[in-house]
Amino acid sequence: MACVKLDGNADAVEFCPTPPHFNVLAAATYTLQEASAEQAPWRLGTLSLFTFPDCGDLELYRTDTLQTCGIFDIKWRPPSSSPTPPLLAQAGADGSLALYNLQVLEPFHLCELIKDNISSSMCLSLDWNPLSKEQISISHSDGGLSVVDIRESNVEVSQHRGNAHSFESWCVAYDPWRPDILYSGGDDCHFCGWDARAGLIQPVFREKKVHHMGVCSIQGSPHEVNHLATGSYDEKLRIWDTRMLSQPIAEKVLALGGGVWKLKWSPFDKDCLVAACMHNGFMVVKMQGDELVLAMEYKKHQSLAYGVDWFRGPSKAFVTQSVLHDAEVEKREAFVGNLESSLPLVASCSFYDCSLHLWKPHFPL
Predict the structure, then answer these.
(1) Does residue 155 lie within any of the structural domains?
(2) Which of 143, 186, 255, 313 sits at a 20 to 30 Å CA gap from 342?
(3) Any bridge partners for residue 289, and if so which?
(4) pLDDT above 90 (res 28)
(5) Distance CA 155, CA 149 (A)
(6) Which regions does the record annotate with the repeat WD (predicted)?
(7) Which residues lie across from 316 on neighbouring strands?
(8) Torsion, CA 95, CA 161, CA 233, CA 9, rounded to 10
(9) Is residue 89 a part of any domain in this protein?
(10) How far is 269 from 286, CA to CA, in rounded Å?
(11) 356 is in which domain, residue-wise?
(12) Residue 355: CB partners within 8 Å, gap ≥ 6?
């Protein structure tokens, strides 16, 4: 296990998914500064980059830190077949969307490409359109949802629904198999689906009876076309069949003992997820037949479990078939070989203790 302290309350962590930069990790913070006689309360944040070495050791090395507004969410642009540089999106507490290029000459650092205010309310979560790569959906603290198009020098809100939820829209996510479909979850306990082709005018479904508290995480499976997971403040993880969204798959509901703030499907195991469970640490969950089972608990954080992600290390076949120079291929082959005994890896962060951990789940794959 590796552990480092961040410069504020840690709430989001994301591994870079773009080859060959899989060992680059971004971590974000959000810190509320209390009001004084001279100033209203304000929200500060930091965005930091880390790498871990090719030798496979669990050590984190900071390469960059930027001072920003308070950050609620970050996401890397999904990789594509064309040679596009890694791009990181940031949802800001000041209502802004910021985009950063990863500068790949070591030491790795971020360069702000665009920052635009898109809302008078806070941006709470974001997701990249898996098909266009130039479109992002964003949820807002006033209950709204936005679809934003990325231009050459700015971003433009192309669609907006102001009252998608009665209270905070905690999360938004594209369906990885049907990129015209958006899912959203709110503090009103509603789980909704939207067809972007219809302009976010009306949800294609609004489920409001199953979740007993706010819906804070939604993740479509990258492996199974019709599987989708939701997490809620009611402390339950639910697996849904997208062909029948009136209720979750009955056997695939699991109480995790803490609000399920963030969910991530494993990139290697179609039946496995990791969950950030707020007051109850981090949980690795597996689907076994018709049931959800708890495979592992990670309780080494000392505060609210908020951010979590899987390392997406490549296979040797991917490295040798990619368009890398011979020296780079040799370097990456050694990196992959050294990591074979370490996979899978998880990065996690917790809020008030400002900590970022890198750890290896121990459970049967």
Answers:
(1) no
(2) 255
(3) none
(4) yes
(5) 6
(6) 208-243
(7) none
(8) -10
(9) yes
(10) 9
(11) 1-34+42-117+313-365
(12) 3, 4, 5, 6, 10, 301, 302, 303, 349
Largest CA distance in the chain: 62
Using a 10 angstrom Cβ sphere, with 0-12 exposed, 13-18 middle and 19 or more buried, the burial of residue 302 is exposed
Please state, in angstroms and rounded to a whole number, the distance separating the CA atoms of residues 322 and 46: 34
Residues shown for the chain: 365
| Residue 230 contacts residue 191 (beta carbons within 8 Å) | yes
Which amino acid does the sequence have at 347?
Answer: A
Q: How many domains does the chain have?
A: 1
DSSP state of 197: G
**Cα–Cα–Cα angle for 134, 78, 254, rounded to 5 degrees:** 120
| Residue 321, helix vs strand vs coil | helix
The residue type at 88: L
Alpha carbons 313 and 322: distance in angstroms, whole number: 14
Q: Could you tell me the sign of the dihedral formed by the alpha carbons of 263, 300, 68, 21, in that order?
A: negative
How far is 144 from 164, CA to CA, in rounded Å? Answer: 5
Does any domain span residue 148?
A: no
Helix (H, G, I), strand (E, B) or coil at 34: coil
Specify whether the CB–CB gap between 291 and 314 falls below 8 A: no
Other Cβ atoms within 10 Å of 171 Cβ, number:
27
Residue 5 to residue 32: CA distance in whole angstroms: 18
Tokens (6 digits) for 117: 């205010």
Residue pLDDT, tens place only, 73-86: 999 999 987 778 89
Tens digits of residue pLDDT in 81-120: 777 889 999 999 999 999 999 998 889 999 999 999 999 9
